[in-house]
Design brief:
By secondary structure, this protein is mostly helical. It is built from 12 helices and 2 strands; from the N terminus they run αααααααααββααα. The chain has 2 domains: about 1-125 and about 170-195, no CATH class; about 220-285, no CATH class. The protein has helices at about 1-10, 25-35, 50-65, 70-80, 90-105, 115-150, 155-185, 185-195, 195-220, 240-245, 250-265, 270-285; strands spanning about 230, 235-240. Strands 1-2 form a two-stranded antiparallel sheet. It holds the Pfam family EIID-AGA.
Length: about 290
């Protein structure tokens, strides 16, 4: 699939591969409609096509504009965008912008219609990994850390800051990337696949996400173990101090890794894990372990 995209992108320069300059009023109007509709990304989400319904809703203003006098082309376009699709909600807009540009080229006969789904299938995996790491594992963790600190003090500003840091930021990025995707059009494919930028950006975002998750674990996950071994105050040894001497924060890391393993491998629901942690905490407190 990627080879097909690369061949399309590295063909002789055409109008399809040129970046767009100043947008027309109609293009701006269509992009604005697509932006607002892109917030329905999970509308009709299902395990068969995942975000296909949300993507079709987002693309509908572009399809109606481009194929308004071509009923058959309009039908094919709607059917085309009902194919399986899944990526991060922000990257979703960038790919939608690209597809808007591609649909123009398809309608003008400058590009085969198969290229539209080819670029979607080629980009949705790498962009999902990159944007999940950036927004879900990094920005969300930062926003939650700030918000929880304020909410723990009874400050309602924590909720608003989380919405601003995590929610509003995503919405702004969705608008910017939708416009960027449309302006770049097919030239994006040529630049990214030839330069290796996609692989580099995905790796960098993954590393950043892991760093942020590690930081979140060390600062917010605490196992207040008070268990001591010994018969008297002079000879007793605190188990937590002994473990931290081996590896600082080892219990916090162990708890996080255990939860991840149970969710990913054993398919245990997070709600059940929360109840188990609560029960273990109450039992440990009653026994004097915590």
């Amino acid at each position: 699939m990627t080879d097909k995209i690369e061949k399309t992108a590295t063909s002789e320069p055409t109008e399809a591969s040129a970046e767009r300059g100043e947008l027309s009023p109609q293009e701006k109007k269509t992009l604005s409609k697509m932006f607002w509709r892109s917030h329905t990304v999970f509308c009709g989400f299902n395990m068969t096509k995942m975000e296909a319904n949300g993507f079709t809703i987002t693309m509908s203003p572009a399809i109606e504009e481009i194929y308004k006098d071509d009923p058959e082309g309009k039908r094919d376009a709607y059917k085309r965008h009902q194919a399986f699709f899944n990526t991060h909600a922000v990257a979703f807009n960038f790919i939608a912008g690209l597809c808007y540009a591609f649909e123009r080229d398809v309608a003008a006969g400058r590009m085969p219609k198969e290229s539209v789904n080819a670029i979607k299938a080629s980009l949705m995996g790498p962009t999902a990994g990159m944007f999940d790491s950036l927004f879900f594992n990094c920005l969300r963790v930062i926003g939650a850390g700030v918000a929880m600190g304020l909410c723990a003090q009874g400050n309602a500003l924590g909720v608003l800051l989380f919405i601003l840091i995590y929610g509003v930021t995503q919405s702004v990025c969705k608008k910017v990337l939708l416009d960027v995707g449309y302006r770049l059009g097919a030239s994006f494919v040529d630049k990214v696949f030839q330069s290796g930028l996609m692989k580099l950006a995905t790796t960098a975002a993954s590393i950043l996400g892991l760093v942020m998750v590690g930081s979140m674990t060390s600062t917010t996950v605490s196992v207040p173990l008070t268990w001591t071994i010994g018969t008297s105050a002079e000879t007793s040894v605190a188990v937590l101090d002994l473990l931290n001497a081996i590896y600082p924060g080892i219990l916090s890391v162990a708890v996080v890794l255990l939860m991840m393993w149970l969710i990913k491998k054993k398919q245990v629901r997070p709600t059940l894990l929360i109840l188990c942690v609560l029960g273990a905490g109450l039992l440990g407190a009653a026994l004097g372990i915590f």
